[in-house]
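User: These chains co-purify. Model them together.
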Amino acid sequence: MADEPVITVKNLTASYGDAVILKDISFTVNRGEIFVILGGSGCGKSTLLKHLIGLYPPAEGDVLIDGEDLTTSIGEDRQRILRRFGVSYQSGALFGSMTLSQNVELPLEEWTSLPADAREAIAWMKLSLVGLEEYGGHLPSEVSGGMQKRAAIARAMALDPAVLFLDEPSAGLDPITSAELDALILRLRETLGVTFVIVTHELASIYAVADRVIMLDKRTKGIIAEGPPQELRDHSEDEFVRKFFHREAE
Amino acid sequence: MTEDARVLEVSGEAGRSRLTFSGRLDAESVAGVWEEALRAAGEGAEVDAAGVEYCDASGVALLHELQRKGAKVSGQNGETAKLLKVFAEAKREAQSETEKPMSTLEWLGRTGAELASDLRDQLTFLGQMAVTYLAILRHPKAMRWTDMWIVFEKAGVQALVVVSLISFLTGLIMAFQAAPPLEQFGVDLFVVNLVALAMLRELGPLMTAIVLAGRSGSAFAAEIGTMKVNEEINALTTMGLDPVKFLAAPRVMAGILLTPVLTIYSDLMGVGGGLFVMLMKGFPIITLWRQLVSAVGVNDVMAGIIKAFLFGALVAGIGCLRGLQTKSGSTAVGVSTTRSVVSGIFLIVLVDAVFAVVYYAIGF
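Assistant: Joint model of the two components:
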């Protein structure tokens, strides 16, 4: 895999008021990589994700997407950067009043001049990529939690983004559905060359899909481990990291 | 349209046309040629995608649509070919089935069935409430009295300002509108009779109930509806608690008790509005008071208050029922809220009409 950085985080400090959550962290995500952010509860995984996708401005530091700084960009420049990635939220965050197909069509309707039947065809394609081609006419409330998550991924892919951010994609799913989602992530990377940034602490999913992980730590407010998950599990010198990967109590 | 000309060239005759794509097939260029390409293609058409340098989902969608129309696509690169193969194997039927327009007969049938089902739900709820209150009569501690007082405060005390304003202004407007025509006959003092009787017998209870339907009935529906969406109602049920007794009984009881109190307050404010206009017109207060006392009797006051009990039960009950009927999804709560206000006001007016006929018939 070529080491071409698509996301570069430089000396990022994240805080809510005076409470510092993450301090001076730096890392890169390479194109085509499946990159996992993990750590214990309350270590700042979701906070980091929200900084990466531009929902929160960093207290200090920069987030570069394809070399362009998301944190300082405004107006059309920011919109252009935002369109390079898609986000699937933990709850799916599908619009309840729209069908799955309409959810996927929404970004196409807003950002392209494609005619309605073209948008419908693309939405169908995206839904079929996640195995939901027969559910386009259903409302989110009419499908299962796993289907909602897959539909959210289809919506996130609507504009052919280079990067997909997934927040806890396997949370609350049964092992089979979770494994199917892992297979989907691998298939999308293979067929579309999408880069994935995934926030999760589901070990089975991490081993199944991750090329590289970073582990955040609540005590140091920084990154305590970085590398392929199997390597960290077997060779990490940090006791917390080893315990995390072996599911041992502290 | 030079960009369109660059990505698509159409040659050949109708039925044997040849479409040659080149350059970048992205959302922008595909939007410009989508209709032209689909129009030109058909059974037997040939599509040459060898010159395509870049093809995103829009481009793949266009090539896929052309394939569905019977065109033969060739020359596409490996990635595009792989995606086209994936989509060619998938079925594409389900979506349009749900968009079939409904016939008038089907619409009538569905609407009738929905109305019948709603009526059944209302009767069931009425029965459940009756059973619940009978149980509470036997065991008063079974009622959540604290909840009832909280609702009483939120729906009653906090509604005083809006009830004051609406009732006072209603009385004032009536007096302003009635005074000039009555003045022509020299009986403008009878404005007091008009305002007092209208407020006490009709407008006091009616305005109060409408304010409660908009303010509190909708709040009940939204609150209980959100609980339904969040599965809190299921949690109550599995804990062995009856949602009707737990949620609806205190709210309906508060509605029954507070509506007459608010109605009396509304009557006073409305009559006050009318008297204020008359005072401005120079009538002495003692004259107005005597006219008022001679115009209204206890039956006029009671006529409004009796209605108010039922209006309170209707507004609170329909709010709770609509909340409990909430379906899933974020829009469901909004639908329940709207339905609670619309059905609440409709039922208030309907019951008021029944009261008008009954009062007339019995000479009350």
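Chain A has nine helices and ten strands.
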